Amino acid sequence: MADLTPDQIYDLLNRPGPLWLVGANLNGANLSAANLSHANLSEAQLSRARLTDANLFRADLSVCELGGANLSWANLREAKLNWAQLVRADLSDADLRKADLSWANLEFASLVGANLRGANLSAADFSGANLYGANLSLCNLSGADLRDTVMIGANLSEAQLREAQLVNLSGANLSGAILIRVSLNGANLNGANLASANLMHANLREATLDEANFIGANLSEANLGEASLCNADFSEANLSGIYLSGANLRNAILTRANLSRANLSGANLRGANLRGANLREASLAEADLTDADLTEADLRDCDLTGVKGLAM
C-alpha cells in the first residue's frame, strides 16, 4: 500500500470499521486514541508511530514494523503481534492480556506496568527490555529470551516456561518478583537477581543458578533438585521444606537462612556458609559439608546419616 497522507489517515479513521490496512505505510503517523479495534494492520509500517491510548482490541498487527512506536496505555487485548518488530517500542501500561506476541522482537522495549496476563510470549525476544512491575502471570514464555531484562516487581505467578532449556534469564533482575509455582526446570539464571522474590512451590529442578542473588527470597517448598547453585547467596532466605537433593551449593552463602525440613540429601555444600542457619528436621544424609561453616547453626533433629566432612 502506498504512503498515506494525514488527510487520508483521518478519512480512514472516520470510516466504519474494522479497517483493512494490510501493508500500509504509517511510519510516524499520529494515531493516538484511534479506534482500530479488529483492524487488519498485518505487515504495516508503523515505525515511530504514536498509538498512545489507541484501541487495538483484537487487531491484527502480525509481522508489523513497530520499532520506536509509542503504544503506552494502548488497548491490545487479544491482539495478534506475532513476529512483530517492537525494538525500543514503548508499551508501558499497555493492556496486552491474552495477546499473541510469539516470535516478536521486543529488544530494549519498555513494558513498565504492562498487563500481559495470559499472553503468548513463546520464543519472543525480550533481551534488554524493561518489565518493571509488569503482570506476566499465566503467560507462555516457552523459549523466550529474557537476557538482561529488568523484571523488578514483575508478577510471573503460574507462568509457563516449558522447554525451559531454551529459556535464558542470565543476569535478569527479578528482585521482588512473584514467581509462585513458576516452572523454570533447567533454565539458565546465572547471576540473576532474585532478592526478596516469592518462589514458593516453584520448579527450578536442574536449573543453573550460579552466583544468583536470593537474599531474603521465599523459596519454601520449592524444587531445586540437582540445581547448580555455586556461590549463590541465600542469606536470610526462607527455604523451609525446600528440595535441594543432589544440588551443587559449593561456596553458597546460607547465613541465617531458614532450612527447616529442607531436603539436602546428597547435596554438595563444600565451603558453604551456614552460619546461624536453621536446619531443624532437615535431611543432610550423604551431603558433603567439607569446609562448610556451621557456626551457631541449629541442627536439632537433623538427619546426618552418612554426611561427609562434618566433625562430629
Automatic annotation (TrEMBL):
InterPro entries per UniProt: 5peptide_repeat
Signal peptide, first to last residue: none
Key words, A-Z: Repeat
Domain of life per record: Bacteria
Coiled-coil ranges per UniProt: none
Pfam families the UniProt entry points to: Pentapeptide (PF00805)
PANTHER family reported for this sequence: THYLAKOID LUMENAL 17.4 KDA PROTEIN, CHLOROPLASTIC
The protein's name: Low-complexity protein
Organism: Chloroflexus islandicus
